[in-house]
């Protein structure tokens, strides 16, 4: 392991599991499953005393690469947010037809949404004025 990867693990939280997360998982984490993106899901081992301190079962995700919460598939999202108690690996979960696959957030990139008339849109022109505007004049 290089010095750079050690420093990255210590000081960044957006590139996978930090040293603190690894320590917590080694002490009380139970591997639950992995999704199609390589994200790994964990929960606190069955310890009613520790789970009572949180008020509910503690659950984690260790992202594969850059940490982006919207990259969690719908089935795992439900489990992570305690909407369902059974993780997708323990049941035959199939996304509904209206559930779309993950698409990265393009804000701040060239792929960002730019509506018609925006200064940054490819058209760069606002629609021509229609000529129906009359300026207000005081006392008129």
From TrEMBL:
Q: Which region ranges are annotated with the description Disordered?
A: 90-140
Mind listing the GO biological process terms from this record?
A: response to oxidative stress
- Signal peptide feature range: none
Cellular component per GO, a single term: respiratory chain complex I
Query: Which NCBIfam families would you find in this protein's record?
Result: PRK08183.1
What is the protein name given in its UniProt record? Answer: NADH dehydrogenase
Phylogenetic lineage: Bacteria, Pseudomonadati, Pseudomonadota, Alphaproteobacteria, Hyphomicrobiales
């Amino acid at each position: 392991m290089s010095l750079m990867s050690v420093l990255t693990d210590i000081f960044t939280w957006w590139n996978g599991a930090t040293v603190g997360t690894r320590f917590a998982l080694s002490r009380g984490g139970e591997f639950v499953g992995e999704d199609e993106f390589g994200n790994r899901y964990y929960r606190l081992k069955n310890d009613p005393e520790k789970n009572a301190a949180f008020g509910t079962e503690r659950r984690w995700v260790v992202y594969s690469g850059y940490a982006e919460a919207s990259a969690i598939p719908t089935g795992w999202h439900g489990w992570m947010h305690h909407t369902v108690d059974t993780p997708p690996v323990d049941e035959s979960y199939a996304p509904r037809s209206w559930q779309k696959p993950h698409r990265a957030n393009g804000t701040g990139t060239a792929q960002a949404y730019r509506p018609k008339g925006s200064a940054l849109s490819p058209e760069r022109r606002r629609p021509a004025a229609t000529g129906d505007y009359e300026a207000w004049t005081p006392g008129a």
